[in-house]
Amino acid sequence: MPVRIALDLDGVLSDSMGRWVEVWNSRYGHPRLSVEDIREWDFWRGLGITLETFNEVFDEVWREWVYLRPLEENIGEKVARLAYFGRVDIVSGRSTRHLPYVKSWLSHHKIRYDTIFLGVSSKSRLTHDIFIDDSPVEAVRIAETARYVLLRDQPWNRNVPKSKFIIRVRNLEEAIKKLAEEVFPGTLP
Ligand SMILES: [Mg+2]
């Protein structure tokens, strides 16, 4: 069985929070936010808004996917290098309503993958071997199942508790390096 990698979308491939704060600032303007202000996973509570409003803004982020930037340059090429280790699935909690936007965005940025799973509420229930994610909540739950999470560094995941199964990475390049050196040593020629 090939290794299965669950690659997250928002906050790992796409700069969704960067775009979220842009939409927020233009729509509400107060308080004016930057990505660095987002220091908690459920930061929207601190804004005094409902989860519904948070999601409404997120809807706009994906509906207007042309404005959504990838978090890294040549992202398609980096995802292709990840596929050296096994099969790469895009796994996201994003609503299945966003599937056409997500697919357009991925194809626009030349990101290839095996299967796409949207609407996933708890990733630790999936059978993937490795996860690349930015969610501190998912990271802790996955680590509890003794599987590795490459945690994409973001302001909202810096307080995640230490675990040998949680490896912090700053970008996909570093994720590839950690996979080669720590998770699957000896895989790359
Ligand atoms: Mg994410």
Concise account of the structure shown:
With 189 residues, the chain is of the alpha/beta class. 34% of the residues lie in helices and 13% in strands.
Please outline the major beta sheet: 6 strands, parallel
Question: What percent of residues are in strands?
Answer: 5-15%
Number of strands: 6
Instruction: Give the rounded overall mean pLDDT.
Output: 95
Net shape: globular
Named once each, the bound ligands are: magnesium ion
- CATH class term of the largest domain: Alpha Beta
Roughly what percent helix? Answer: 25-40%
Q: Helix/strand-derived class?
A: alpha/beta
Q: Looking across the biggest beta sheet, what order are the strands in?
A: 3-2-1-4-5-6
Indicate the CATH architecture of the largest domain: 3-Layer(aba) Sandwich
Q: What radius of gyration results from the CA coordinates? A: 16 Å
Number of domains: 2
For the termini, the CA-CA separation is 20 Å
CATH homologous superfamily assignment of the largest domain: HAD superfamily/HAD-like
Low-confidence stretches: none
Tell me the CATH topology of the largest domain.
Rossmann fold
Q: How many helices?
A: 6
How do the helices and strands follow one another from N- to C-terminus? EHHHEHEEHEEH
Oligomeric state as shown:
single chain
Can you describe this structure?
The structure is a single chain. This protein has about 190 residues and is of the alpha/beta class. The protein has two domains: about 120 residues, HAD superfamily/HAD-like (Rossmann fold, 3-Layer(aba) Sandwich); about 50 residues, no CATH class. The chain has a six-stranded parallel β-sheet, with helices on both faces. Strand 2, helix 4 and strand 3 form a beta-alpha-beta unit. Helix 1 packs across helix 2 and helix 3 runs parallel beside helix 6. The chain is globular and about 50 Å long. The mean pLDDT is about 95. The structure holds magnesium ion.
